[in-house]
Amino acid sequence: MKKNISEVINISNDIYDNGLVSGKAGNISARFKGENGDVIAITPTLKSLSQLNEEDIVLVDLDGNILTKGKPSSEVNMHLEIYKKRSDVNGIVHTHSPYATGFAHSSKRIKRFEGFGDVETPFLAEIEYEKPGSYELAKNASEGLGDEDVLILKKHGVVCVGENLKEAELLAIFVEETAKTQFVTHMLNSVEDII
Predict the structure, then answer these.
(1) Pairing label, strands 157-162, 58-61
(2) pLDDT in tens, 11-36
(3) Active-site residue 75, yes or no?
(4) pLDDT of residue 64 exceeding 80
(5) Is the dihedral angle over the CA atoms 76, 80, 86, 89 positive or is it negative?
């Protein structure tokens, strides 16, 4: 269990250091097997991902029962609903990365680039805005994600999932780089070449 908690802390630091979250935004979780079934290690509410220690990580079961001290992220239900629907997912990263979140606040969509696996749909999946922390967001996010590994939350941020937490983190970094590339492309295409 200590290994799982350490991984959550290390990846939280990475996500903050890579600029995918700022302030006290964002949350991540990892699923692992406990003595009595699946246990979710999730970051706490109202604390920066850059300043976490072992005591801050909250353990919950799939029903949302808190197994340790502390208060889990306000998005805990979104994480739990995704885990319940996706047995293949063992890591979830929810960021407010600037470029991808910029797309989430605009009418533009993020195109699927190579690196997202087989390109079967032209754009990343997205759902309409729901209040952060709400049951509606948890339900719609878990349904909107479907079999995808990335979901854009309109006017909110990004959710990435993986078979483990490291895979989810790498995907979150790739999504942000993709959004950055597409933003630069949009800007260059909108400026008349005067040379």
Answers:
(1) unpaired
(2) 999 999 999 999 999 999 999 998 88
(3) yes
(4) yes
(5) positive
Residue 149 amino acid letter: D
Task: Give the β-pairing of 37-42 and 125-127.
Answer: unpaired
Of these residues, 7, 35, 54, 75, which one is catalytic?
Answer: 75
List own/partner pairs for 166-172 with CB under 8 A and 24 or more apart: 166/7, 166/11, 166/91, 167/91, 168/28, 168/91, 168/92, 168/93, 169/11, 169/14, 169/15, 169/28, 169/91, 169/93, 171/93, 172/15, 172/20, 172/93, 172/95, 172/97
The Cβ of residue 123 has, within 10 Å, a number of other Cβ atoms equal to 12
C-alpha 125/C-alpha 71 separation (Å) is 30
Q: 188: pLDDT confidence band, cut at 50, 70 and 90?
A: confident
37: left (phi over 0), alpha (psi -120 to 50) or beta: left
